[in-house]
Amino acid sequence: MRKLTPFDRSAQTAPLLLTAHAIHTADDDATTATAMLTDRGRILAIGTPAECEAAAEGVGLSPERIDLGDAVIVPGFVDAHAHPLMFGQMMSWVDCGPEKAGSIPEIVALLKAAASDLPEGRPVRGYGYEQRNLAEKRHPTRFELDEVAADREVYLMNASGHGGVVNSYTLAINDVDRDTPNPDGGEFFRDADGELTGELSDAACNILTGVHGVKIGHHGPNFHLADEPEEHLRQLDAATQRFLAGGVTSIGDAQVTRREFDMYLRLAEAGRLELRVSMYLLSHLLDEALEMGLVGQFGNAHLSFAGIKFYADGTLGGWTAYFPDGYVGDPCRTGQLYHEPAEYEGLIRKAHAAGLQTATHAQSPTAIEMVVSAIEAALAEHPDPDARHRIEHCGLPTPEQIERMAASGIRPVNQTQHYFNWGEGVEEAIGTPGERFNPLGEFERAGVPFTISSDAPVAEPIPLEAIQTAVTRVTRRGHKLGPDDLRVSALAALRAHTIEGAVSIGREDDLGSLEVGKYADFAVLSGDPLAVPAEEISAITVRETWVDGVRRHRV
Hints:
Elements: E1 16-24, E2 32-39, E3 42-47, H1 49-58, E4 64-67, E5 72-75, E6 77-82, H2 84-90, E7 94-95, H3 104-117, E8 124-129, H4 142-146, E9 154-158, E10 163-166, H5 168-173, E11 186-190, E12 196-202, H6 229-245, E13 248-256, H7 258-269, E14 276-282, H8 286-291, E15 298-299, E16 303-311, H9 341-353, E17 357-362, H10 365-381, E18 390-393, H11 399-408, E19 411-414, H12 416-430, H13 440-446, E20 451-452, H14 463-472, H15 490-496, H16 499-504, E21 522-525, E22 542-547, E23 550-554
Parallel strand pairs: 1-4, 1-5, 6-13, 7-8, 8-9, 13-14, 14-16, 16-17, 17-18, 18-19, 19-20
Antiparallel strand pairs: 1-2, 2-3, 5-21, 9-10, 10-12, 11-12, 15-16, 21-22, 22-23
Helix pairs in contact: 2-6, 6-7, 9-10, 10-11, 12-14
């Protein structure tokens, strides 16, 4: 895998000597230190205070000393799969999640209140509901959202981000009626009589992006709703602060279109990109990327191109992940594949032959089989021992598929907060096999390096919550998902959200662990995630977050 040649934005940062109760480096030796010397945004020494003092004297530095007392330092968390602009945009929407609304009337009331405060004609947008968590155990309907407004668009996004529900007005202005065919890669849902319910998924969300908005066809769910550029920049700024508050210093944006690309460039030009972003262009842009010669990683230390994002199937939360025999919770639903296997294999072959890393969303065993088989075929034609092709989410791989992933160097990028928030719903959707959702322990035993990320805004970027869930497999409601051998240690989980995340985005040479020569990106914690009882890890607070040896967040 080609490596970046980073541009050092931090050349003027002063030398620092930091001491703390413990500094967990997350390196291969799982070293724990008590002092760290940094200069110009890089780590010069790490070890004991005396060793760092000697290192400073050896190069003629007189560093500022910062004693962090009983705090614990860990590498800055790498969130290898997130959607920052989508996250920032939804922060301006109405929160209809389980902590705000437990029933459809409560959701309608929240949206009505928001509509009354918006200018006339302004769309009403909500997010966060998960139908199985509602008292009614179903999606709202367009008729219920008509109670919010009948003269403007109303869109309620499902927690999965793969669709939701719209009101009748939204369907009417887009000329969608009972006879409108489903688009490739999406669906306008209908009731038993063939009438539109208002629920829509994945590519059907193209109608929400406006005449001149981003259109992605059957290459993924369309959440790329447009606002004015300045508003998008404010949204990205807001999202950045939330990531930094969680201790996150690097992000893999797992679905970049022209909307995201333009905003990152604007933010970088304005000097407002405070953390690091590795961009994965959505697969409808593959030919354009190849035409422009984007055949490897490039960029600087804060904004870089990493690879191409694909979709194999949908989401378990929205029941669009592909189960050909139907869902236990609704045998009439099978979900979908975004591409026919032969078409998908051709796309992977094209990207791999050009030297591009691929990252494919796949949840069901059938979808994962399509991905693993395509990567195996591509590697057979063009062997590459370090291709690092990724499977995003990789919810329910079979044991045999896991063994093949190990042999092909395929990296799963998992989100343990998915089962923290909705683990019970996965079991309700597909039955007992759902308790294996994100089988980290099986990956570990098979020698498959796994990465933990948030998928924000599907989950909040709270790495310590994700780490706790990997260690306990206990959901928000106290339900334990699956047997103990699916759990991993706190150290393995910490590495999965730091150095393994850096490997997954191709940045392990300068990020992900606290080692001499790497960037001084780290989080300062109130407690030790490797020492407290597992069920208390998420109670640890992030006191400070540093990027390039500069404090970017402080409680």
